[in-house]
Specification:
Elements: E1 3-7, E2 14-18, E3 23-26, H1 41-63, E4 67-79, E5 87-99, H2 103-117, H3 119-124, E6 129-138
Parallel strand pairs: 5-6
Antiparallel strand pairs: 1-2, 2-3, 4-5
Amino acid sequence: MECKVKWTGDGMSFVAETGSNHTVVMDGAPEAGGRNLAPRPMELLLAGTGGCTAFDVVLILKKGRHAVTGCEVSLQAERAEVEPRVFTHLHFHFRVTGKQLKPEAVARAIDLSREKYCSASIMLAKTAEITHDFEIVEA
């Protein structure tokens, strides 16, 4: 895996080009010299973690032949007050939609992601306490 990040030369905006040839723009807050034109790098880290775990949960449920039709994860993060301002607490709330999904199957998928598959959340667990909960919505 690779990525190249380049400063645009304008304020605090950066463009990341991923190894899969996609681009993502990042910008800083105005008080840090940015123009608030794009997500902050730490917001993208949080979004990537949410995407990583949601991917796992959907894949695990599909492989188990569960009728999953939707998965949304809301993440709340707290950061340290002093530098480095690492994440210190993350809460993941999953909203999984499907037909006759069993709570045990959803809980198991979330646990497998948390304990084994989601590299992003496993890395963040080195500095942050991570909690999870979920709700099931009947499709």
